[in-house]
Protein backbone atom coordinates (compact mmCIF):
# COMPACT_ATOMS: atom_id res chain seq x y z
CA UNK A 1 0.00 0.00 0.00
CA UNK A 2 1.00 3.61 -0.31
CA UNK A 3 2.29 5.48 2.74
CA UNK A 4 2.28 9.22 3.47
CA UNK A 5 5.85 9.46 2.13
CA UNK A 6 4.60 8.31 -1.28
CA UNK A 7 2.03 11.10 -1.54
CA UNK A 8 3.12 14.06 -3.64
CA UNK A 9 2.58 17.45 -1.95
CA UNK A 10 1.23 20.71 -3.27
CA UNK A 11 3.91 22.50 -5.28
CA UNK A 12 4.84 19.43 -7.32
CA UNK A 13 3.97 20.14 -10.98
CA UNK A 14 2.36 16.69 -11.42
CA UNK A 15 -0.62 17.95 -9.37
CA UNK A 16 -1.24 20.69 -11.94
CA UNK A 17 -1.03 18.56 -15.09
CA UNK A 18 -3.90 17.05 -17.05
CA UNK A 19 -3.64 13.30 -16.56
CA UNK A 20 -3.55 10.96 -19.58
CA UNK A 21 -6.34 8.52 -20.48
CA UNK A 22 -5.81 4.96 -19.37
CA UNK A 23 -5.84 2.11 -21.90
CA UNK A 24 -6.99 -1.47 -21.37
CA UNK A 25 -5.93 -4.05 -20.43
CA UNK A 26 -4.31 -2.24 -17.51
CA UNK A 27 -0.52 -2.18 -17.38
CA UNK A 28 1.25 -3.72 -14.42
CA UNK A 29 1.88 -0.19 -13.08
CA UNK A 30 -1.79 0.74 -13.33
CA UNK A 31 -2.88 -2.43 -11.55
CA UNK A 32 -0.36 -1.71 -8.81
CA UNK A 33 -1.78 1.78 -8.37
CA UNK A 34 -5.33 0.43 -8.07
CA UNK A 35 -4.31 -2.10 -5.45
CA UNK A 36 -2.04 0.12 -3.39
CA UNK A 37 -4.41 3.10 -3.46
CA UNK A 38 -7.49 1.14 -2.32
CA UNK A 39 -5.40 -0.54 0.36
CA UNK A 40 -4.32 2.89 1.62
CA UNK A 41 -7.96 3.94 1.96
CA UNK A 42 -9.05 0.72 3.67
CA UNK A 43 -6.16 0.67 6.13
CA UNK A 44 -6.43 4.40 6.83
CA UNK A 45 -10.10 4.02 7.76
CA UNK A 46 -9.23 1.48 10.47
CA UNK A 47 -8.38 3.67 13.47
CA UNK A 48 -5.73 1.30 14.84
CA UNK A 49 -3.97 0.64 11.54
CA UNK A 50 -4.25 4.33 10.66
CA UNK A 51 -2.24 5.15 13.76
CA UNK A 52 0.20 2.29 13.29
CA UNK A 53 1.14 3.39 9.76
CA UNK A 54 0.86 7.14 10.55
CA UNK A 55 -1.71 7.77 7.80
CA UNK A 56 -4.42 10.39 7.38
CA UNK A 57 -7.86 8.74 7.18
CA UNK A 58 -8.69 9.05 3.49
CA UNK A 59 -11.76 8.68 1.31
CA UNK A 60 -10.08 9.12 -2.08
CA UNK A 61 -6.65 9.02 -3.69
CA UNK A 62 -5.96 9.98 -7.30
CA UNK A 63 -3.03 8.66 -9.34
CA UNK A 64 -1.35 12.10 -9.79
CA UNK A 65 -1.12 12.23 -5.97
CA UNK A 66 1.41 9.41 -6.11
CA UNK A 67 3.17 10.88 -9.15
CA UNK A 68 1.29 8.92 -11.82
CA UNK A 69 -0.26 11.30 -14.35
CA UNK A 70 -3.07 9.01 -15.47
CA UNK A 71 -6.85 9.20 -15.15
CA UNK A 72 -7.40 6.85 -12.20
CA UNK A 73 -8.54 7.35 -8.62
CA UNK A 74 -9.50 5.06 -5.77
CA UNK A 75 -12.63 6.10 -3.87
CA UNK A 76 -13.88 4.59 -0.61
CA UNK A 77 -16.74 6.47 0.97
CA UNK A 78 -17.78 4.77 4.20
CA UNK A 79 -21.44 4.13 4.90
CA UNK A 80 -23.05 7.03 6.73
CA UNK A 81 -25.32 4.54 8.48
CA UNK A 82 -23.80 3.01 11.64
CA UNK A 83 -25.30 -0.49 11.25
CA UNK A 84 -24.67 -0.68 7.51
CA UNK A 85 -21.39 -2.39 6.77
CA UNK A 86 -21.12 -1.76 3.05
CA UNK A 87 -19.57 1.50 1.89
CA UNK A 88 -21.78 4.03 0.11
CA UNK A 89 -19.26 4.05 -2.75
CA UNK A 90 -16.17 1.93 -3.33
CA UNK A 91 -14.32 1.54 -6.62
CA UNK A 92 -11.26 2.49 -8.60
CA UNK A 93 -12.63 4.93 -11.15
CA UNK A 94 -10.77 4.99 -14.46
CA UNK A 95 -11.23 7.58 -17.24
CA UNK A 96 -14.12 9.08 -15.24
CA UNK A 97 -16.44 11.59 -16.90
CA UNK A 98 -19.22 13.61 -15.30
CA UNK A 99 -21.91 13.23 -17.94
CA UNK A 100 -24.40 15.50 -16.22
CA UNK A 101 -24.58 17.62 -13.12
CA UNK A 102 -27.27 19.35 -11.09
CA UNK A 103 -27.65 23.12 -11.18
CA UNK A 104 -27.91 22.81 -7.41
CA UNK A 105 -24.59 23.30 -5.61
CA UNK A 106 -23.48 21.51 -2.48
CA UNK A 107 -20.59 22.22 -0.15
CA UNK A 108 -19.22 20.47 2.91
CA UNK A 109 -19.95 22.44 6.10
CA UNK A 110 -16.41 21.74 7.29
CA UNK A 111 -14.79 22.77 4.02
CA UNK A 112 -12.31 20.38 2.39
CA UNK A 113 -8.76 19.22 2.85
CA UNK A 114 -6.49 17.12 0.70
CA UNK A 115 -3.95 14.38 1.29
CA UNK A 116 -1.57 16.43 -0.89
CA UNK A 117 -2.12 19.69 1.00
CA UNK A 118 -0.51 19.82 4.42
CA UNK A 119 -1.96 23.13 5.55
CA UNK A 120 -5.52 23.92 6.45
CA UNK A 121 -7.28 26.06 3.84
CA UNK A 122 -10.58 27.27 5.33
CA UNK A 123 -13.62 28.04 3.20
CA UNK A 124 -16.53 26.51 1.35
CA UNK A 125 -15.84 24.52 -1.79
CA UNK A 126 -19.01 24.76 -3.90
CA UNK A 127 -19.55 21.72 -6.12
CA UNK A 128 -22.48 20.11 -7.90
CA UNK A 129 -24.79 18.45 -5.41
CA UNK A 130 -25.67 15.60 -7.81
CA UNK A 131 -23.74 14.15 -10.71
CA UNK A 132 -24.06 11.35 -13.21
CA UNK A 133 -20.69 9.66 -13.32
CA UNK A 134 -19.41 7.39 -16.06
CA UNK A 135 -16.15 5.48 -15.56
CA UNK A 136 -14.37 2.22 -16.26
CA UNK A 137 -13.34 -0.18 -13.51
CA UNK A 138 -10.11 -2.17 -13.38
CA UNK A 139 -11.61 -4.83 -15.64
CA UNK A 140 -12.45 -2.23 -18.28
CA UNK A 141 -16.17 -2.49 -17.62
CA UNK A 142 -18.10 0.75 -17.99
CA UNK A 143 -20.34 1.99 -15.18
CA UNK A 144 -22.74 4.89 -15.16
CA UNK A 145 -24.45 5.97 -11.96
CA UNK A 146 -25.92 8.92 -10.12
CA UNK A 147 -24.33 10.17 -6.97
CA UNK A 148 -25.49 12.83 -4.55
CA UNK A 149 -24.21 14.68 -1.51
CA UNK A 150 -21.01 13.41 0.08
CA UNK A 151 -20.11 10.66 -2.45
CA UNK A 152 -20.68 13.19 -5.28
CA UNK A 153 -18.38 15.69 -3.55
CA UNK A 154 -15.63 13.12 -3.08
CA UNK A 155 -15.77 12.03 -6.74
CA UNK A 156 -15.64 15.64 -7.94
CA UNK A 157 -12.62 16.27 -5.70
CA UNK A 158 -10.83 13.21 -7.15
CA UNK A 159 -11.75 14.02 -10.76
CA UNK A 160 -10.41 17.55 -10.22
CA UNK A 161 -7.02 15.96 -9.45
CA UNK A 162 -7.07 14.37 -12.91
CA UNK A 163 -7.47 17.85 -14.41
CA UNK A 164 -4.82 19.59 -12.32
CA UNK A 165 -7.31 21.32 -10.03
CA UNK A 166 -7.03 21.53 -6.23
CA UNK A 167 -9.93 22.12 -3.83
CA UNK A 168 -8.85 25.61 -2.78
CA UNK A 169 -9.07 26.78 -6.42
CA UNK A 170 -12.85 26.80 -5.84
CA UNK A 171 -12.79 28.88 -2.63
CA UNK A 172 -13.96 32.47 -2.99
CA UNK A 173 -10.88 34.67 -2.52
CA UNK A 174 -12.69 37.71 -1.10
CA UNK A 175 -14.92 35.78 1.26
CA UNK A 176 -13.93 32.13 1.76
CA UNK A 177 -17.23 31.28 3.46
CA UNK A 178 -19.37 32.74 0.71
CA UNK A 179 -20.96 30.20 -1.63
CA UNK A 180 -23.48 30.64 -4.46
CA UNK A 181 -26.95 31.54 -3.12
CA UNK A 182 -28.65 28.16 -3.45
CA UNK A 183 -25.81 26.00 -2.09
CA UNK A 184 -26.88 23.04 0.02
CA UNK A 185 -24.67 22.53 3.06
CA UNK A 186 -23.59 18.93 3.51
CA UNK A 187 -22.51 17.72 6.92
C1 LIG B 1 -9.48 12.96 2.30
N1 LIG B 1 -10.34 12.76 4.49
O1 LIG B 1 -9.18 11.79 2.32
F1 LIG B 1 -16.49 11.19 6.30
F2 LIG B 1 -13.50 7.69 7.14
C2 LIG B 1 -9.71 13.71 3.62
C3 LIG B 1 -8.44 14.21 4.29
C4 LIG B 1 -7.70 15.15 3.35
C5 LIG B 1 -8.81 14.95 5.55
C6 LIG B 1 -7.51 13.05 4.64
C7 LIG B 1 -11.62 12.76 4.83
O2 LIG B 1 -12.45 13.54 4.42
N2 LIG B 1 -11.82 11.74 5.71
C8 LIG B 1 -12.91 11.04 6.05
C9 LIG B 1 -14.19 11.55 6.00
C10 LIG B 1 -15.24 10.73 6.36
C11 LIG B 1 -15.03 9.43 6.75
C12 LIG B 1 -13.72 8.96 6.79
C13 LIG B 1 -12.67 9.74 6.45
N3 LIG B 1 -9.61 13.63 1.12
C14 LIG B 1 -9.24 12.88 -0.07
C15 LIG B 1 -8.23 13.53 -0.95
O3 LIG B 1 -7.47 14.41 -0.63
N4 LIG B 1 -8.24 13.04 -2.15
O4 LIG B 1 -7.51 13.54 -3.13
C16 LIG B 1 -10.15 14.95 0.96
C17 LIG B 1 -11.68 14.93 0.88
C18 LIG B 1 -12.22 16.36 0.99
C19 LIG B 1 -13.53 16.35 0.28
C20 LIG B 1 -13.56 15.14 -0.57
C21 LIG B 1 -12.25 14.43 -0.39
ZN1 LIG C 1 -7.19 15.66 -2.85
Automatic annotation (TrEMBL):
Removes the formyl group from the N-terminal Met of newly synthesized proteins. Requires at least a dipeptide for an efficient rate of reaction. N-terminal L-methionine is a prerequisite for activity but the enzyme has broad specificity at other positions. The keyword Secreted does not apply. HAMAP family: Pep_deformylase. It holds the Pfam family Pep_deformylase. The keyword Ribonucleoprotein does not apply. Fe cation binds at residues 114, 157, 161. Binds 1 Fe(2+) ion. Belongs to the polypeptide deformylase family. CDD domains: Pep_deformylase. Its cofactor is Fe(2+). The active site is at residue 158. It catalyses: N-terminal N-formyl-L-methionyl-[peptide] + H2O = N-terminal L-methionyl-[peptide] + formate. Transmembrane segments: none annotated. One of its GO terms (biological process) is translation. PANTHER family: PEPTIDE DEFORMYLASE (PTHR10458), PEPTIDE DEFORMYLASE 2 (PTHR10458:SF8). It is an enzyme of class 3 (hydrolase). GO terms for molecular function: metal ion binding; peptide deformylase activity. This is Peptide deformylase. Keywords: Hydrolase, Iron, Metal-binding, Protein biosynthesis. Its EC number is 3.5.1.88.
Amino acid sequence: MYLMKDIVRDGDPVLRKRAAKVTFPLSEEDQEFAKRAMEYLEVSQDPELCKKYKLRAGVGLAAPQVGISKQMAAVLVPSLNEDDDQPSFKDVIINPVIVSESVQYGALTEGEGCLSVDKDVPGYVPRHDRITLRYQDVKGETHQLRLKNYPAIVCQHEIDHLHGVLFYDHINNDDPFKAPDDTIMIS
